[in-house]
Design goal:
Length: 72
Amino acid sequence: MCISMYVAYIPQIIANFTGNPVSPLQPLVTGLDAVLWVMYGWTAPHKDWPIIISNFPGIIFGIATVVTVYVH
């Protein structure tokens, strides 16, 4: 479900490229949330790979969505 939530940003990225930019606030906060979860999983005594793997796409898609808001 976590990965599905982040992949759901693809339509927003497409909207940004087609000249209908979305608000950057939600993807920015989502990307920050993903960074924090990945850091948590990485710094756990035993790396928590499911948390790291499921939240890493949030970093990529969150940043991509925010960047495309301004690059359209």
